[in-house]
Structures are given as structure tokens and as C-alpha cells.
Design brief:
single chain; alpha/beta; 6 helices; globular; binds 6-phosphogluconic acid
């Protein structure tokens, strides 16, 4: 596995370029592109570049969109990761509706929602699912996807899990074992407030409970795209 930390000026632009290159390479090799998008605010900058520069690109018709995690809220809720992606990306590009796979929101049943998503992943990707590209963010507390420090979520087996982070919405997340089956994993980390978490994750002592992103790997490429310079 190739591991690289790349300091760049424009994380959104470089993230969009990685999306396009991985899509083209995956479609050429296997006829489809399976990508798991991350939540939070940084992905919106990637989406803006994709919509502005690639909205009519041919790869969209062979692309299947998934999400690495979700807040357990209806899709039209302001906190929904899918809702944000729908507004800033999905409704602007020609991905067939049947190839957009948000986490199901089964009201009051987060466990059943998580199990349903695992079934969808199995139906679409088979028994040994490999996303071609999984985007992840990093919280200033060290969380990634919805694997929050101190919740034990980083140790979950299986493909999906429900997480109850203190003071936040109930969360749904892919697990480390599934994320690590991705061919490429790319972290998108920007902003001075992420410096301490990034430094500790990359160069601190191994402590996956407090820095879950330390448990993340990939089958081919693990890439950290950041505007910060965090040397060892
Ligand atoms: C979420 C995300 C979360 C996010 C990080 C970074 O649902 O909030 O999946 O893991 O990626 O918190 O978010 P920013 O991109 O806003 O810094």
C-alpha cells in the first residue's frame, strides 16, 4: 500500500481531480466506479469543482455514490450528509437515480437503518465489497467518518455501525474493516483547527481509540490531502 501526505493549497480542487482520475481508471478497469463520499463541509468544495468542471463528463453514468457515514436524520434535514451532497452535487450531474445510495432513514430504528445499508452494499458490491475511492474527513477531536473517540466504534467489525457520540446526533458509519477494503482512501483535511488532530493522528503514538483515523488503511493507496504542513 502506497501512503502519502500531500500538502496542497486547494484541497477541494485536488480532491476533485483525484475523484475524476479514480473514476476514469476504475471504469477502464472494471466498467464501474464505486465511491463513498464523506460528510461535513470540506466535500462541498470538491463538489463545486466537479460540478463546475466535470458536470457533463461521461464517467457519471458509470458511477455509484455511497456515503461513508450519515447523521441519523431525514434526508431533507439540514444536518444530512446526503442532503448536502444532493444539493451541491447529485442534482447537478447525470448519475442515474438507481446509482445513488444514501443511508436509509428508518425513523426511530438506527440499527435497522445501518443493517439495511449493509444489505445494499452487499447487493451492489458483492460479498467482498471494495470501494474504488473512499473520502474521509478528520474532526478536530480526531474522529473520522462517524468513528468518534471514546465510543469504541473504531473496533466494530461487520460493515456498518450505529454510534452515539456525546452531544451529537446519533450517527451511522461504515466500519474500519469495510473502509480498509477500499482501493484508495483519501482524507481531506483543511483548516488550522485540524492541525493538532492531524499531527497526533499522523505522528503521535498509536492510539486508535482516541485517534480512530490511525486504524484506517487501504488496499492500494492511502492519501492525506491537506493545506497544513505537519512534518514528523
Ligand atoms: C460528518 C463527517 C465527519 C467529517 C469531519 C470533517 O458527518 O461530519 O463525516 O467525519 O468528515 O467532521 O468535517 P469538515 O470537512 O467539516 O472539516
Amino acid at each position: 500500500m502506497q501512503r502519502e501526505v500531500r500538502t496542497v493549497e486547494d484541497v477541494g480542487a485536488v480532491g476533485a481531480q483525484l475523484f475524476v482520475e479514480t473514476a476514469q481508471r476504475s471504469i477502464e478497469a472494471r466498467g464501474q466506479f464505486f465511491v463513498a463520499l464523506s460528510g461535513g463541509s470540506t466535500p462541498k468544495e470538491v463538489y463545486a469543482h466537479l460540478v463546475e468542471e466535470y458536470r457533463d463528463a461521461p464517467f457519471w453514468t458509470r458511477t455509484r455514490l455511497f456515503w461513508g457515514d450519515e447523521r441519523f436524520v431525514p434526508h431533507d434535514h439540514e444536518d444530512s450528509n446526503f442532503g448536502a451532497a444532493k444539493e451541491h452535487l447529485v442534482q447537478h450531474v447525470p448519475v442515474p437515480d438507481g446509482q445513488v445510495h444514501p443511508w436509509p432513514y428508518l425513523a426511530d430504528e438506527p440499527e435497522r437503518s445501518a443493517h439495511s445499508y449493509a444489505a445494499i452494499i452487499g447487493e451492489v458490491l458483492g460479498d467482498t465489497p471494495h470501494f474504488d475511492l473512499t473520502f474521509l474527513g478528520l474532526g478536530d477531536d480526531g474522529h473520522t467518518a462517524s468513528l468518534f473517540p471514546g465510543t469504541g466504534a473504531v473496533h466494530e467489525e461487520g460493515w456498518t455501525t450505529v454510534v452515539q457520540p456525546e452531544g451529537r446526533n446519533t450517527r451511522l458509519s461504515l466500519t474500519v474493516p469495510l473502509i480498509n477494503q477500499s482501493r484508495t482512501v483519501a482524507f481531506l483535511v483543511q483548516g488550522e483547527k485540524k492541525r493538532d488532530a492531524l499531527q497526533a493522528t499522523l505522528h503521535g503514538e498509536k492510539d486508535v481509540e482516541h485517534y480512530p483515523a490511525q486504524a484506517v488503511s487501504a488496499q492500494e493507496q492511502l492519501l492525506w490531502l491537506t493545506d497544513l504542513d505537519v512534518s514528523a
